């Protein structure tokens, strides 16, 4: 496909990232895989946290090291989605969060981007020596389940979380 490329955030993408945040807030959507972008007051605050979370030595308390990528259109340079790869799992992530979280902006959904973005992130997981990748989604999120299955995800089980049910999928990398 090659419609997307994964790019690490830098200050030169500030406007695109803040526009991404605005679109999600306006639509009342969940911003998964954005390293806490919704809660950051400013780009600079978010970017600083993103940088700290890259390494075990500087990751914020209670979190695991993670790398957040932007999925950029190879056609026009637009920010299509964001995806977060957690380098290892803590107890909560093992049950409910998994190694990868992602989101696609509403204006770009149902175009196959999530499947492509997840495929690209699995290559990054291999570089991090993560050979067995856990990805979760809400049972009601059929689109996300299809994205995971399209990338060879195998459903292990479902776990009740509050009023919802989390599906846990594993993808084994060669």
From TrEMBL:
<dbReference type="InterPro" id="IPR016181">
    <property type="entry name" value="Acyl_CoA_acyltransferase"/>
</dbReference>
<protein>
    <submittedName>
        <fullName>GNAT family N-acetyltransferase</fullName>
    </submittedName>
</protein>
<feature type="domain" description="N-acetyltransferase">
    <location>
        <begin position="4"/>
        <end position="174"/>
    </location>
</feature>
<dbReference type="Pfam" id="PF13302">
    <property type="entry name" value="Acetyltransf_3"/>
</dbReference>
<dbReference type="InterPro" id="IPR000182">
    <property type="entry name" value="GNAT_dom"/>
</dbReference>
